[in-house]
Design goal:
Helices cover about 50% and strands about 15% of the residues. The protein is α/β, with parallel strands linked by helices. The longest helix has about 30 residues. Bound molecules: zinc ion.
Length: about 230
Protein backbone atom coordinates (compact mmCIF):
# COMPACT_ATOMS: atom_id res chain seq x y z
CA UNK A 1 0.00 0.00 0.00
CA UNK A 2 2.80 2.37 0.99
CA UNK A 3 4.68 1.52 -2.20
CA UNK A 4 1.61 2.22 -4.32
CA UNK A 5 1.12 5.64 -2.65
CA UNK A 6 4.78 6.43 -3.23
CA UNK A 7 4.45 5.40 -6.87
CA UNK A 8 1.41 7.64 -7.49
CA UNK A 9 3.03 10.58 -5.71
CA UNK A 10 6.08 10.15 -7.90
CA UNK A 11 3.89 9.90 -11.01
CA UNK A 12 2.08 13.16 -10.14
CA UNK A 13 5.40 14.90 -9.43
CA UNK A 14 6.80 13.83 -12.81
CA UNK A 15 3.59 14.96 -14.55
CA UNK A 16 3.75 18.40 -12.86
CA UNK A 17 7.43 18.77 -13.74
CA UNK A 18 6.80 17.97 -17.43
CA UNK A 19 3.81 20.40 -17.51
CA UNK A 20 5.96 23.16 -15.98
CA UNK A 21 8.70 22.59 -18.56
CA UNK A 22 6.18 22.77 -21.42
CA UNK A 23 4.53 25.95 -20.06
CA UNK A 24 7.85 27.73 -19.41
CA UNK A 25 9.14 26.60 -22.78
CA UNK A 26 6.14 28.14 -24.51
CA UNK A 27 6.47 31.41 -22.59
CA UNK A 28 10.20 31.74 -23.30
CA UNK A 29 9.72 30.77 -26.94
CA UNK A 30 7.23 33.65 -27.30
CA UNK A 31 9.67 36.08 -25.67
CA UNK A 32 12.33 35.04 -28.14
CA UNK A 33 10.35 36.47 -31.06
CA UNK A 34 11.81 39.82 -32.08
CA UNK A 35 9.13 42.49 -32.15
CA UNK A 36 9.27 45.83 -33.93
CA UNK A 37 6.76 48.65 -33.73
CA UNK A 38 6.19 50.84 -36.77
CA UNK A 39 4.46 54.12 -35.98
CA UNK A 40 2.97 56.72 -38.33
CA UNK A 41 2.53 60.31 -37.13
CA UNK A 42 0.43 63.21 -38.42
CA UNK A 43 -2.40 61.32 -40.12
CA UNK A 44 -4.80 60.29 -41.19
CA UNK A 45 -4.22 61.63 -44.69
CA UNK A 46 -5.20 60.61 -48.21
CA UNK A 47 -2.25 58.17 -48.02
CA UNK A 48 -3.61 56.23 -45.05
CA UNK A 49 -5.63 53.68 -47.11
CA UNK A 50 -2.49 52.77 -49.09
CA UNK A 51 -0.43 52.32 -45.93
CA UNK A 52 -3.14 50.28 -44.20
CA UNK A 53 -3.68 47.99 -47.19
CA UNK A 54 0.08 47.28 -47.49
CA UNK A 55 0.29 46.49 -43.76
CA UNK A 56 -2.75 44.23 -44.01
CA UNK A 57 -1.37 42.44 -47.08
CA UNK A 58 1.73 41.48 -45.08
CA UNK A 59 -0.14 40.73 -41.86
CA UNK A 60 1.79 43.53 -40.15
CA UNK A 61 0.37 45.70 -37.39
CA UNK A 62 1.32 49.32 -36.69
CA UNK A 63 0.35 52.34 -34.60
CA UNK A 64 -1.03 55.61 -35.99
CA UNK A 65 -0.59 58.75 -33.86
CA UNK A 66 -3.39 60.89 -35.27
CA UNK A 67 -4.35 64.57 -35.17
CA UNK A 68 -7.79 65.62 -33.97
CA UNK A 69 -8.50 67.87 -36.94
CA UNK A 70 -7.74 64.97 -39.30
CA UNK A 71 -9.96 62.54 -37.39
CA UNK A 72 -12.77 64.95 -38.25
CA UNK A 73 -11.57 65.27 -41.86
CA UNK A 74 -11.10 61.54 -42.57
CA UNK A 75 -13.36 59.56 -40.22
CA UNK A 76 -13.51 56.51 -42.50
CA UNK A 77 -9.74 56.16 -42.46
CA UNK A 78 -9.75 56.08 -38.66
CA UNK A 79 -12.29 53.26 -38.77
CA UNK A 80 -10.17 51.39 -41.36
CA UNK A 81 -7.12 51.63 -39.08
CA UNK A 82 -9.00 50.30 -36.07
CA UNK A 83 -10.98 47.59 -37.85
CA UNK A 84 -7.76 46.27 -39.41
CA UNK A 85 -6.37 45.68 -35.91
CA UNK A 86 -3.86 48.53 -35.82
CA UNK A 87 -3.56 50.82 -32.80
CA UNK A 88 -4.49 54.49 -32.66
CA UNK A 89 -2.58 56.94 -30.52
CA UNK A 90 -3.11 60.67 -30.02
CA UNK A 91 -0.83 63.35 -31.50
CA UNK A 92 -2.73 66.52 -30.50
CA UNK A 93 -5.20 68.74 -32.33
CA UNK A 94 -3.37 70.46 -35.18
CA UNK A 95 0.39 69.95 -34.69
CA UNK A 96 0.79 73.58 -33.68
CA UNK A 97 3.77 74.41 -31.40
CA UNK A 98 1.14 76.25 -29.32
CA UNK A 99 0.49 72.88 -27.68
CA UNK A 100 3.47 73.63 -25.42
CA UNK A 101 2.36 77.13 -24.32
CA UNK A 102 0.37 76.29 -21.19
CA UNK A 103 1.03 73.78 -18.43
CA UNK A 104 -2.20 71.93 -19.17
CA UNK A 105 -2.35 72.51 -22.94
CA UNK A 106 -0.79 69.15 -24.00
CA UNK A 107 -3.28 67.37 -21.75
CA UNK A 108 -6.19 69.45 -23.10
CA UNK A 109 -5.22 68.70 -26.72
CA UNK A 110 -4.93 64.97 -26.07
CA UNK A 111 -8.27 64.93 -24.26
CA UNK A 112 -9.92 66.83 -27.12
CA UNK A 113 -8.44 64.37 -29.63
CA UNK A 114 -9.65 61.47 -27.51
CA UNK A 115 -13.17 62.94 -27.36
CA UNK A 116 -13.35 63.07 -31.16
CA UNK A 117 -11.98 59.52 -31.41
CA UNK A 118 -14.56 58.27 -28.91
CA UNK A 119 -17.42 60.10 -30.63
CA UNK A 120 -16.47 58.41 -33.90
CA UNK A 121 -15.50 54.91 -32.78
CA UNK A 122 -16.69 54.50 -29.19
CA UNK A 123 -13.07 53.87 -28.22
CA UNK A 124 -10.47 55.98 -26.47
CA UNK A 125 -6.69 55.72 -26.54
CA UNK A 126 -4.16 56.21 -23.75
CA UNK A 127 -1.21 56.19 -26.16
CA UNK A 128 0.15 59.66 -26.88
CA UNK A 129 3.03 61.15 -28.81
CA UNK A 130 3.56 64.90 -28.58
CA UNK A 131 4.42 66.85 -31.78
CA UNK A 132 8.17 66.74 -32.53
CA UNK A 133 8.70 64.31 -29.61
CA UNK A 134 9.03 64.92 -25.90
CA UNK A 135 12.62 66.19 -26.09
CA UNK A 136 11.43 69.18 -28.16
CA UNK A 137 9.61 71.31 -25.59
CA UNK A 138 7.57 69.16 -23.23
CA UNK A 139 8.13 70.20 -19.61
CA UNK A 140 8.13 67.79 -16.68
CA UNK A 141 5.01 69.50 -15.32
CA UNK A 142 3.21 68.93 -18.63
CA UNK A 143 4.46 65.34 -18.71
CA UNK A 144 3.27 64.70 -15.15
CA UNK A 145 -0.20 66.00 -16.00
CA UNK A 146 -0.40 63.58 -18.93
CA UNK A 147 0.74 60.67 -16.73
CA UNK A 148 -1.61 61.62 -13.89
CA UNK A 149 -4.49 61.47 -16.35
CA UNK A 150 -3.57 57.98 -17.49
CA UNK A 151 -1.77 58.78 -20.75
CA UNK A 152 1.27 56.80 -21.87
CA UNK A 153 3.85 58.95 -23.65
CA UNK A 154 5.75 57.34 -26.52
CA UNK A 155 8.80 58.64 -28.38
CA UNK A 156 10.92 56.42 -30.65
CA UNK A 157 14.38 54.86 -30.88
CA UNK A 158 14.58 54.38 -34.65
CA UNK A 159 14.26 57.44 -36.89
CA UNK A 160 14.52 56.85 -40.66
CA UNK A 161 13.98 60.64 -41.12
CA UNK A 162 11.21 60.25 -43.68
CA UNK A 163 9.97 63.83 -43.30
CA UNK A 164 13.20 65.77 -43.09
CA UNK A 165 14.49 67.77 -46.05
CA UNK A 166 14.46 66.32 -49.55
CA UNK A 167 13.21 62.74 -49.55
CA UNK A 168 15.48 60.04 -50.97
CA UNK A 169 13.98 56.55 -50.45
CA UNK A 170 17.41 54.89 -50.42
CA UNK A 171 18.58 57.30 -47.73
CA UNK A 172 15.50 56.57 -45.59
CA UNK A 173 16.13 52.83 -45.86
CA UNK A 174 19.81 53.35 -45.01
CA UNK A 175 18.80 55.43 -41.95
CA UNK A 176 16.44 52.63 -40.90
CA UNK A 177 19.18 49.99 -41.16
CA UNK A 178 21.66 52.23 -39.32
CA UNK A 179 19.34 52.90 -36.36
CA UNK A 180 18.18 49.28 -36.19
CA UNK A 181 21.76 48.06 -35.93
CA UNK A 182 22.29 50.34 -32.91
CA UNK A 183 18.95 49.56 -31.26
CA UNK A 184 19.27 47.53 -28.06
CA UNK A 185 15.57 47.50 -27.14
CA UNK A 186 12.56 46.62 -29.29
CA UNK A 187 12.58 49.08 -32.20
CA UNK A 188 9.97 51.85 -32.04
CA UNK A 189 10.18 53.23 -35.58
CA UNK A 190 9.12 56.78 -36.44
CA UNK A 191 7.43 57.22 -39.80
CA UNK A 192 4.97 59.80 -41.04
CA UNK A 193 1.66 59.36 -42.80
CA UNK A 194 2.71 60.87 -46.12
CA UNK A 195 2.90 59.92 -49.79
CA UNK A 196 6.65 59.34 -49.99
CA UNK A 197 6.47 57.00 -47.00
CA UNK A 198 3.43 55.17 -48.40
CA UNK A 199 5.50 54.56 -51.54
CA UNK A 200 8.31 52.79 -49.68
CA UNK A 201 6.51 51.18 -46.73
CA UNK A 202 6.14 47.82 -48.48
CA UNK A 203 9.90 47.62 -48.90
CA UNK A 204 10.30 48.52 -45.22
CA UNK A 205 7.83 45.84 -44.09
CA UNK A 206 9.49 43.17 -46.23
CA UNK A 207 12.94 44.18 -44.97
CA UNK A 208 11.90 44.05 -41.31
CA UNK A 209 10.26 40.65 -41.76
CA UNK A 210 13.41 39.35 -43.47
CA UNK A 211 15.33 40.50 -40.38
CA UNK A 212 13.07 38.25 -38.28
CA UNK A 213 10.84 40.91 -36.77
CA UNK A 214 7.18 40.41 -35.99
CA UNK A 215 5.50 43.78 -36.66
CA UNK A 216 3.16 44.68 -33.82
CA UNK A 217 0.94 47.53 -32.70
CA UNK A 218 1.81 49.31 -29.46
CA UNK A 219 -0.24 48.20 -26.50
CA UNK A 220 -1.43 50.06 -23.42
CA UNK A 221 0.13 47.25 -21.37
CA UNK A 222 3.67 48.14 -22.48
CA UNK A 223 5.95 50.46 -20.54
CA UNK A 224 6.31 53.45 -22.87
CA UNK A 225 9.69 54.54 -24.16
CA UNK A 226 10.22 58.28 -23.90
CA UNK A 227 12.89 60.88 -23.19
CA UNK A 228 11.18 62.19 -20.05
CA UNK A 229 12.07 59.05 -18.09
CA UNK A 230 15.73 59.04 -19.15
ZN1 LIG B 1 4.08 64.97 -35.85
Amino acid sequence: MKNRLYFFTLLIAVFLLISAIIIFGTVFAKDDIKKAYITFDDGPTLNTPTIVSILNKHNAKATFFVLEERIVMYPDYIKDILYSGHAIGLHGVSHSPAIYEGESSPLCEMQKTNNSLKALTGKESRLVRVPFGSSYKLTHAQYKLLCDNGFLLWDWNVDPRDSVGKIYPDKILANLRRDLSKCKDAPIILFHDRKSTANLIEEVVIYLKEQGYELCALSEKQTPLNHMEN
